[in-house]
Amino acid sequence: MKFYNYSAGPSALFPEVVEQIKHELGNWQNTHSSVFEISHRGPEFMKFAKEMENTFRELLQVPDDYAVLFLQGGGRGAFDAVPLNLPLKHKRALYLTSGHWSRQPALEAQKYLEVKTAELVDKNFQQTKIDWTEESKDCDYVHFTSNETVEGIENFNPPKVAPGVLVVADMSSDILSRPINVNDYDVIYAGAQKNIGCSGVTVYVVRKSLLGHASKICPAILNWETYHNSDSLFNTPATFSWYTCGLTFKYLKDTFKDLANLEQVNIKKASKLYAYLDSEDFYQNKVPQNLRSRMNISFNTPNEELDAKFVQEAKEAGLYYLKGHKVIGGLRASTYNAIPEEAVDQLISFMKVFADKYK
């Protein structure tokens, strides 16, 4: 029996990456040590770190006038880092909410500036609008979350904002899953543990012109300029996490060549599962088609008791981590980059059997 991992995060790595980790575990690059036993300032790791950044830049097509930084603290650390680093003329920001994780950064930002909030996606899973010019004209930046892992909502385009207002995106769960125009954003941040490696790294893509504006109360550990000036080696990094990211970046480049090719794979996987959900009354997905996430597909059976049975029987069939987030319950299948199409096929096969059994 094959086993598949649909965890929303930390999530599955590509099997080829895991095999390489196992192969190199005791002797990385002929150092006779594992990658997490050597100095982060040694020549082997320094070379690896530069290659990691360059491959990421190539995949996402990051322009030269953007800094790529690797920090710790996860997405929650970024909730504080954003208002602490950006230049604040108005000391006001607009936070657009579309689900659970877009509401959290607004709570943190209130410590440092005035926060306005507005629903980008309402409680009925309907997009309110895309033009926020009027609402943002007295703000320093607009923050939004491109993919909501809890509800299964994906915002594929940045909001339209007033001239001079910065656009900040939390892309923790869909970064590197599709091409984007980096120039549409001023700051992008993403925790690694969904699509690009194991937990412990947060990737930032920041316009270089925004560096050097940190608040006096910004700790050095969150200061983007400090990390830019030190090649992200201001402190000892999470070396093993960096290592998994570097291996994943290289695998994506070698296997898919570019994100346009990878996007087609992700579209195919998600479309298969959504098509089945739409064809079967036993399961429900409440997200309209234009907002459906390709990364996190949420659904329900007719009641909570059957949801629980689904999780248990799926596990017995080798399908793991399909329980929905505690905030909304239900069920959820995460189909990140490393999840193969056959995992989606296997899940649909199980869902058909389950539906026939309990209709």
From TrEMBL:
Its EC number is 2.6.1.52. GO terms for molecular function: O-phospho-L-serine:2-oxoglutarate aminotransferase activity; pyridoxal phosphate binding. Residues 4-347 form the Aminotransferase class V domain. GO terms for cellular component: cytoplasm. It is an enzyme of class 2 (transferase). L-glutamate binds at R41. Pathway: Cofactor biosynthesis; pyridoxine 5'-phosphate biosynthesis; pyridoxine 5'-phosphate from D-erythrose 4-phosphate: step 3/5; Amino-acid biosynthesis; L-serine biosynthesis; L-serine from 3-phospho-D-glycerate: step 2/3. GO terms for biological process: L-serine biosynthetic process; pyridoxine biosynthetic process. The modification N6-(pyridoxal phosphate)lysine is found at K194. Binds 1 pyridoxal phosphate per subunit. Its cofactor is pyridoxal 5'-phosphate. It catalyses: 4-(phosphooxy)-L-threonine + 2-oxoglutarate = (R)-3-hydroxy-2-oxo-4-phosphooxybutanoate + L-glutamate; O-phospho-L-serine + 2-oxoglutarate = 3-phosphooxypyruvate + L-glutamate. Pyridoxal 5'-phosphate binds at G75, R76, W101, T149, D170, Q193, N235, T236. Its main location: cytoplasm. Pfam families: Aminotran_5. It comes from the Bacteria. Catalyzes the reversible conversion of 3-phosphohydroxypyruvate to phosphoserine and of 3-hydroxy-2-oxo-4-phosphonooxybutanoate to phosphohydroxythreonine. Homodimer. Belongs to the class-V pyridoxal-phosphate-dependent aminotransferase family. SerC subfamily. This is Phosphoserine aminotransferase. It comes from Psittacicella gerlachiana.
